[in-house]
Amino acid sequence: MAKIDAFFELMQKYKASDLHLLSGSPPILRINGELQRVKYKVLDDVELKPMLYEIITEEQAKEFEETGDLDFAYEVPGLARYRANYFMHKDGIGAAFREIPENIKTIDELGLPQVLKSFALLPKGLVLVTGPTGSGKSTTLAAIIDYANEKRKARIITIEDPIEFVHKHKNCVISHREVGHHTHSFAAALRAALREDPDIILVGEIRDLETARLVMEAAATGHLVLSTLHTVGATKTVDRLVEMFPTDEQNFIRSLFSDVIRGVISQTLFKRIDRPGRVAALEIMVATYGVRNLIRENKTHQLSSLIQTGKKYGMQTLDDAIMDLLSKGVIDPEDAYLNAIDKAKFKPFLKRIPKDFTEV
Q1: Rounded to 5 degrees, what are φ and ψ at 312?
Q2: Strand-pair partners of 92
Q3: Which residues pair with residue 263 across a beta bridge?
Q4: Which residues contact 181 (CB under 8 A, 6 or more apart)?
Q5: Exposed e or buried b per residue across 168-186, where buried means at least 16 C-beta atoms within 10 angstroms of its C-beta
Q6: Which domains are seen in the chain, by residue range?
Q7: Residues 6+ apart with CB under 8 A from 268
């Protein structure tokens, strides 16, 4: 047992999502979205460095010393898997660990909208899950893949950096590939995946132009592709993806994107007030004919209107999702107000209007 594993046991005891170990600070846990210091001595570089080096290979140590950064996954048998990042900072070495639960929660267990099950059964196209870092995108993607694994007989390839949720073979045959370990890059793995008889391809993140291009090509050639972007809202997601391409290509890409897109799920995570934990509010855009036409004609500013009127297709706005959680007493009114798009709708729930300098 590695010395650092004691901190992971502490994470599980307090149901923490993240662990931060930094030279010059005591250990810190993120519990229900808030950072809390552990009652432990301040760690210094002399103590922390060998603790962190104990769980990486010589090759990983060499990479970290050359670049000052390292991403990898670490597993404690019988406990959980962790997504890890090592970095250098002013006071020495530092590390951040995020727990990846061993048991994958289903769409129903997470309380996610039923339309996500329909996305899992699509024969082809592109489905994007978006939101800021830490908003639960990987958990939502894992639930969609799990549903496909239960209901389909398909070949699934996941390409991640690092591998997060590990799916067991159910009705599907699943291969997990890790960038930097099993393949050189997302783009290289995507090219290879097209020759590996896939039905579903999960790309952990669209990070660059080449990956974006290959993701859309894969979706256009008869595969279901699932991926993530660090954007908030369906409209911004469409604009961001198109704007990744050179100006002279954007009209073509907008047309291609309108053909392949099947859905955009944009989520924001909230702290619960009814019980410990967090809950996601989801904006969902289903790519109906009208939605695809607006994308093709570069009228994305009108998408929110179609989302508002598309409830029969499973669409919902972020504000409607937030209002639903608020009316059920799941989230705090002030938190709802600060994260809403149309804040006026949430003012009646407030005892006082919080100061929001972004509205000035």
Answers
A1: -65, -20
A2: 89
A3: 127, 286
A4: 162
A5: eeeebebebbbbeeebebb
A6: 5-100 (3.30.450.90), 115-347 (3.40.50.300)
A7: 131, 132, 135, 232, 280, 281, 318, 322, 339
Nearest to 214 by CA among 182, 236, 183: 183
Beta bridge partners of 245: none
Both tokens of residue 61?
């140590």
Record the tokens describing residue 194, joined without a space: 């097209």
pLDDT tens, the chain, 360 aa long: 899 999 999 999 999 999 999 999 999 999 988 999 999 999 999 999 999 999 999 999 999 999 999 999 999 888 889 999 999 999 999 999 999 987 899 999 999 999 999 999 999 999 999 998 888 999 999 999 999 999 999 999 999 988 889 999 999 999 999 988 889 888 999 999 989 999 999 999 999 999 999 999 999 999 999 999 999 888 899 999 999 999 999 999 999 999 999 999 999 999 999 998 899 999 999 999 999 999 999 999 999 999 999 999 999 999 999 999 999 999 999 999 999 989 889 999 988 877 766 654
Are 264 and 128 in contact, with CB atoms under 8 Å apart? yes
Contact in structure between 223 and 201 (CB atoms under 8 Å)? yes
Look at the block and give the residue holding tokens 């229900």: 32
Residue 223 to residue 320: CA distance in whole angstroms: 32
Angle, helix 209-220 to helix 250-260, in steps of 10 degrees: 50
